[in-house]
Amino acid sequence: MNEDQGTAGVGKTMKLTLYVAGQTPKSVAAIRNLERIVAEHLEGLYEVEVIDLREHPQLAREHNIVAIPTLVRSLPVPVQKIIGDLSDEEKVLVHLQVDN
Amino acid sequence: MPESEAELRRRLEEAESTLRAIREGEVDALVVRGAEQDEVFALGGQDSYRAFMEAMEIGAAALDGQGKLIYANAALCMLFGRSAKDLQKDGFFGALGESAGFTVRQLLQDAAQSRSSTQIALPCVGGYRHVEVGVAPLALGFGQGHALTFTDVTERIEAAAAHESDRIGRAIMASSNEAVLVCNQEGRITHANTGVRNFFNGSAVGRLFDEAFTLGFALSSGLMAGGDLIGVALAGSAVRGVEATLTTVGRTRDVLLSAAPLRQSGDTIFGCIVTIADVTERRATEKRQALLMDELTHRVKNTLTLVMAIAHRTIAASKDMGEFRTAFGRRLEALAATHSLLASDVWNGLTLEELIAVELAPFVTVGSERVKLTGVDVRVVPDAAVALGLIFHELVTNAVKYGALSGENGRIAISAAQQDDRIEIVWREHGGPPVMQPEKMGFGQTLISRGLGQHGEQATKVEFHPEGLVCRMYIAATQTAAA
Fold this sequence. Notes:
The complex is a heterodimer.
Chain A: E1 2-5, E2 14-20, H1 25-41, E3 46-52, E4 67-68, E5 70-75, E6 80-83, H2 89-95
Parallel strand pairs in A: 2-3
Antiparallel strand pairs in A: 1-3, 2-5, 5-6
Chain B: H1 2-23, E1 29-32, E2 39-42, H2 49-55, E3 59-63, E4 69-72, H3 74-80, H4 84-90, H5 92-110, E5 116-124, E6 127-140, E7 143-152, H6 154-175, E8 179-184, E9 189-192, H7 209-212, E10 214-217, H8 226-234, E11 239-248, E12 251-263, E13 269-278, H9 280-317, H10 321-344, E14 350-351, H11 352-360, E15 371-374, E16 378-380, H12 382-401, E17 411-419, E18 422-430, H13 443-450, E19 461-465, E20 468-476, E21 480-482
Parallel strand pairs in B: 15-17
Antiparallel strand pairs in B: 1-2, 3-4, 3-7, 5-6, 6-7, 8-9, 8-13, 10-11, 11-12, 12-13, 14-16, 16-21, 17-18, 18-20, 19-20
């Protein structure tokens, strides 16, 4: 597990969890893409956790993960899920409801 | 219940989007709910890097920043002889062992900036292997790690070592004076240096050792044939200095054989090396020396017997101790003089001239008018020389006391001539005081008469003519040799 944290402010922090499976190409790509997106669009407003389900398969149940990679926005509610390697930046931003 | 309906819709939507993502290849792993715990399955494909890694012949592994094994491909697992799970459970560095583990940790440190590689001895199934380890930094989803490759270069190193050994071996063989040859596991000759040509006409390479060389072994060696020697060496024992006879066309030689196994790395014996040294001449010299030793022992015994006889007879003929001392001493001196002469000529015998000269020397010069020698340039065998030496001593002693050498005018003529298969040696004195037949026969005369013993062809005759003593001695022609 790997956590990145921006300058979190109570109430406005976006909590993201990226579920990956070791180093499958799409897992690696998803990690890279998410790093880029948060750096470019979510400066200081996020808390990211990467969960490797190969090492911790039991953690899949919390967000009912079926496909990998999956990015879950657990805060703010409602929970949003984005399945895939996050290469479609527009789609990711729309799902995360980030006003560009 | 609108909320529950909304929840259902949301879950339906989520399920649909998951299916769509799977269908469209946006995911490459799935979580499958198991009875006890969930499991993650990668969706492999032709383009999957994992499939590529698994297909690679070289071992590959990925370590995270803490050195923990994330991935090991099939080739690496095979190299270690352990499953990826085992490697993960026991720790990658545990499998590497202390020495290789230390080297790899060093490499990981060095690889922080760039690729680095080195060779290590890796504990593997069936022993250590020479492995080239390459380390490169690897960006992982959760930080920095390292990509490691393991290339088994054992065969390459062994081939290079074998090539080098082969080169050195050939140089050694070429420079050896002895015959050196190499046989393979079948006992067939694969290499032979030029020395081998002394024992085998033509090229011995390609032939079975047993067939190429006809060897005879002493029973004590425990070997029956050349093949046995090769067999012992191929079984791992070195054999040194085995005596044998080697028969080549029309010739048998004494040889010394040595054989030793040739080992590859580890304990594998792939052949043996055999050396053959010709010791025929050395053996002949040894035989000659043994013969000389026997001869020496025989002569010493004879001499002692002779000394005993001289002592007994000299005592019997002596009036007092003083006379005994003088007579006995002189006789021993004569014996010693003859022996010295014999020894100086390496026991090959002496000429009559030499014998006569040594006995006459204290009293008269050989070559002077008083001594005339004819046909005495005859070499006699050692035993006959000793006997003749004693007789000449007695004749000289007698001549000095009573005969030709007792005055100033006496002369002696000594001649030797062949008569059929014997040599007649005549000692003739004249010009000395008138000679009379002695009343009794002293030891001197006995020695003269019987001294030649078995060497005499005919009894020695002593004639007391008034004008001078004449002594005729006979020795068989077989007791002489051309001077």
